[in-house]
Each structure stands twice: as structure tokens, then as C-alpha cells.
Q: What sequence folds into this?
């Protein structure tokens, strides 16, 4: 078993640049979901009220930055060619990947809109601050909060389906799909 040592994707394989971004973002998103639900269960008087939302927002903003890098990267360095499978599944794979991008963007933007609704900037681990834009709609915190919850739930559900599809490729079709995203040649 050998690992891919190239930074960039080529026609047959993912490079370690996008592989690292895929897995860092996947772990962060899967972790942010229960952390978000936990925030919702906290009251103002819980000591965690001062820390956990801060971590959730800070990690979320870092994920938003990675998403921006990932989208720019993808425009210049395309993923490898699809492995052969029925045309309908190739279409479904593309649709799921595009929808995952839309949901990632949606959850991150709605999170930003909740956190900046009162005009305060977001402190990312107290390293730097992301400024607030003026509120766009009435009652922005509540509306963005509801949208955030539903998009986050759709995102982790679709990601679970996406992971199951990857396992099907590995164990049933016995192709290279899953190995490629781990950089195994
Ligand atoms: C929140 C979690 C996840 C998200 C948002 C996500 C998102 C994506 C996206 C957008 C792609 C398309 C390639 C790209 O543009 O980078 C991709 C590729 C891939 N992901 Fe995930 N992923 C997640 C978790 C997982 C998990 C848990 C697995 C496996 C168990 C997995 C397996 C794969 C595989 C095998 C590919 C390559 C597909 C191909 O070559 O057609 N992903 N992922
Ligand atoms: C992939 C990224 C993210 C995921 C999966 C996620 C997930 C969640 C979930 C599931 C909740 C609980 C919602 C509820 O029960 O009503 C939540 C709450 C929250 N999230 Fe996120 N989140 C993400 C990114 C962000 C970002 C980037 C920010 C802000 C910068 C943010 C700010 C918040 C805030 C302030 C709450 C509390 C909202 C409330 O109590 O109404 N999130 N998040």
C-alpha cells in the first residue's frame, strides 16, 4: 500500500491538498453539529455558555475559510475523472457533490448571520475578528437560527448518504473510489 505524495489532483487521483481539506472539513462539520445542538440546550447561567458557542463559531469561521480555499482550488485543479459506473449514478454523484457544496455554504453563511445579527463582530479564538455586516432582515437572529438548523441537518444527512455510497463503492463494487479519497494507490 502506497500513499499519494502529490499536492495536486491529476486525471487519476486526488492530491494530498484536497484530500486534507476534505477530511479536515468532514471532521469539523460532523463535530460542529452536536456542538450546535449542545449550545441550544445551554442557558445564560451555564458556565459553558461563555465557551462552547465561542468554539462553535470560531471553528465554523475557519471551516468557511477552508471552503473558500476549496472552491477556488477546485476551479484551477479539477478532481480526477469519474470511475466508470452507470450514467445515472455519475449524474447522481455530481448532483450530491454540488448539493453538499451548496449546503456547506448555506450553513456557514446562516451561522454568520445569526452571530452578527446584533452588529457585533465574531472573535475567532481571540486570534482575529470577522466584522459584522448590517442586518439584512427583521428578526435576523431567529430566522437565520431556524435556517441554520435545517441546513445543518440536511448537510449531515446528505453527508451520511454520501459516506454510505462511498462504502458501497468499496465493498460491493470493489472499485478505487474510497481509496482515492484516502490517497491510497
Ligand atoms: C460532512 C462530511 C462530508 C462532506 C461535506 C463531504 C463532501 C465531499 C465532496 C464535496 C466531495 C467531492 C470532491 C470535492 O469536491 O472535494 C467528496 C468526495 C468524496 N468523499 Fe466526502 N464528504 C464528507 C464525508 C465523507 C465521508 C465520511 C466519506 C467516507 C466514508 C467520504 C468519502 C468521499 C469519497 C470516496 C469521495 C470521492 C468521490 C469520487 O471520487 O467520486 N466523504 N466529499
Ligand atoms: C458546518 C458548519 C456548522 C454546522 C454543522 C453547525 C450546526 C449547528 C447546529 C446543529 C446548531 C443547533 C441549532 C438549533 O438547535 O436550533 C447550531 C447552532 C448555532 N450555530 Fe452553528 N453550525 C455550523 C457553523 C456555524 C458558524 C460558521 C457559525 C457562526 C460563525 C455558527 C453559529 C451558530 C450559533 C450562534 C448557534 C446557536 C443558535 C441558536 O441557539 O439559535 N454555526 N449550529
A:
Amino acid at each position: 500500500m502506497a500513499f499519494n505524495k502529490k499536492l495536486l489532483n491529476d486525471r487519476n487521483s486526488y492530491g494530498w491538498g484536497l484530500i486534507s481539506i476534505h477530511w479536515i472539513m468532514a471532521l469539523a462539520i460532523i463535530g460542529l453539529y452536536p456542538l450546535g445542538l449542545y449550545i441550544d440546550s445551554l442557558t445564560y447561567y451555564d458556565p459553558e455558555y461563555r465557551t462552547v458557542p465561542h468554539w462553535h463559531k470560531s471553528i465554523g469561521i475557519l471551516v468557511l475559510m477552508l471552503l473558500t480555499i476549496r472552491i477556488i482550488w477546485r476551479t484551477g485543479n479539477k478532481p480526477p475523472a469519474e470511475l466508470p459506473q452507470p450514467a445515472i449514478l455519475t449524474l447522481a454523484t455530481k448532483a450530491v457533490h454540488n448539493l453538499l457544496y451548496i449546503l456547506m455554504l448555506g450553513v456557514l453563511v446562516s451561522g454568520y448571520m445569526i452571530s452578527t445579527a446584533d452588529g457585533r463582530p465574531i472573535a475567532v479564538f481571540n486570534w482575529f475578528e470577522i466584522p459584522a455586516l448590517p442586518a439584512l432582515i427583521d428578526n435576523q437572529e431567529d430566522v437565520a437560527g431556524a435556517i441554520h438548523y435545517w441546513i445543518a441537518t440536511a448537510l449531515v444527512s446528505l453527508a451520511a448518504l454520501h459516506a454510505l455510497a462511498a462504502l458501497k463503492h468499496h465493498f460491493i463494487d470493489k472499485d478505487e473510489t474510497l481509496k482515492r479519497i484516502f490517497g491510497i494507490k
About this structure: Residues 29, 32-33, 36-37, 39-40, 53, 56-57, 60-61, 63-64, 107-108, 111-112, 114-115, 122, 145, 148-149, 152 surround protoporphyrin IX containing FE (ligand 2) (CB under 6 Å). The mean pLDDT is 95.
